[in-house]
């Protein structure tokens, strides 16, 4: 316990003994390893669980090609993006602390505003979707134990709202971590958890294959028949493309992660190493989860392949996988929320530079507390949780939002910024190649957006506010 005398007020955010970088900010201490943890935490989200379903829609050929292709595209565009952290020179230029700052420095104010809408729109959307997804996983653990205790025919339906509130309380506490640099331990834990639940899913798939053999699969996915029309297959394939695109999307926080790296070796060099390891590891896990899940369940692969293993055999292992997923999303939420907190706090400091509420820091033992940070971040978490509780179909909307923002944030802006910064000649081979790549990814986003819109309309027909039940 600390009494009142142990609390002191610090006028400035930085303590006297802290070291600073060339730009006057606290010296960055991040390494390529910590950046890799942030990247894996962001990429390997709950979307990995739907990849076996994506394989069922696309089939073996298109499924494998799609995963490999998206991995290569994301690696290429990420390399372009990390070279835009400093402008105009990628090693000695001026730092761009955020994605939006990089767009502003290279492409001007109009595209800066468009980027802001896309980037913070998807970040807000993902934090809401993670609230919903985590609650469903928490509920799945309770349901599993209920079925194991009372039998599979027992009424074990569970309301998701209490779990959303629990998740919100945890996030309010964790959101007081001041910035990305302080999140490294949480990201490392979250990255380990993502590998754990992926590994459990892979292990369960292999076990099912050994016991029951390979399920009915196809080179082209679910065949068209009287119960599954060609039009329905087309829409499902579009939706699967969107799921894969969203599963690989992480560019919207890439420069924010890069801003945590120490300047020696050069940030872009360390970030390229981190990006390569992060995307390669994620692609391997994606391929194993998607392919083995499809082999185990065949054309009847569920949307979340962990739920397809049932509640009995072995129920505790599925519970462990869901628990790992919950811990992972707790960390991933913070990685995605930090850019939002930073934007709001930086704007507030500029708007009210003399405000004592914003500028004063209180020390409680070894912890610095800022009342404005406490109020702002707690309000954000509470608001996002409320939206998640009111709109239980939000995951469908997230699919639409992700499909719409994949092209601009992951492909268009990185390519256009790199062209502008390196002054690539118009109509040169490199310029034409990049424009064709951008056009192809735009087409994928449009198709995925169409499939997600159709799913959203269907969800609206059965919409029940505050009625999220697992």
TrEMBL record:
<keyword id="KW-0029">Amino-acid transport</keyword>
<feature type="transmembrane region" description="Helical">
    <location>
        <begin position="374"/>
        <end position="394"/>
    </location>
</feature>
<keyword id="KW-0812">Transmembrane</keyword>
<dbReference type="InterPro" id="IPR013057">
    <property type="entry name" value="AA_transpt_TM"/>
</dbReference>
<feature type="transmembrane region" description="Helical">
    <location>
        <begin position="35"/>
        <end position="53"/>
    </location>
</feature>
<keyword id="KW-1133">Transmembrane helix</keyword>
<feature type="transmembrane region" description="Helical">
    <location>
        <begin position="276"/>
        <end position="297"/>
    </location>
</feature>
<feature type="transmembrane region" description="Helical">
    <location>
        <begin position="431"/>
        <end position="451"/>
    </location>
</feature>
<dbReference type="GO" id="GO:0003333">
    <property type="term" value="P:amino acid transmembrane transport"/>
</dbReference>
<feature type="transmembrane region" description="Helical">
    <location>
        <begin position="400"/>
        <end position="419"/>
    </location>
</feature>
<feature type="transmembrane region" description="Helical">
    <location>
        <begin position="317"/>
        <end position="341"/>
    </location>
</feature>
<dbReference type="GO" id="GO:0015171">
    <property type="term" value="F:amino acid transmembrane transporter activity"/>
</dbReference>
<feature type="domain" description="Amino acid transporter transmembrane">
    <location>
        <begin position="28"/>
        <end position="457"/>
    </location>
</feature>
<keyword id="KW-0813">Transport</keyword>
<keyword id="KW-0472">Membrane</keyword>
<protein>
    <recommendedName>
        <fullName>Amino acid transporter transmembrane domain-containing protein</fullName>
    </recommendedName>
</protein>
<feature type="transmembrane region" description="Helical">
    <location>
        <begin position="183"/>
        <end position="206"/>
    </location>
</feature>
<dbReference type="GO" id="GO:0016020">
    <property type="term" value="C:membrane"/>
</dbReference>
<feature type="transmembrane region" description="Helical">
    <location>
        <begin position="59"/>
        <end position="82"/>
    </location>
</feature>
<dbReference type="Pfam" id="PF01490">
    <property type="entry name" value="Aa_trans"/>
</dbReference>
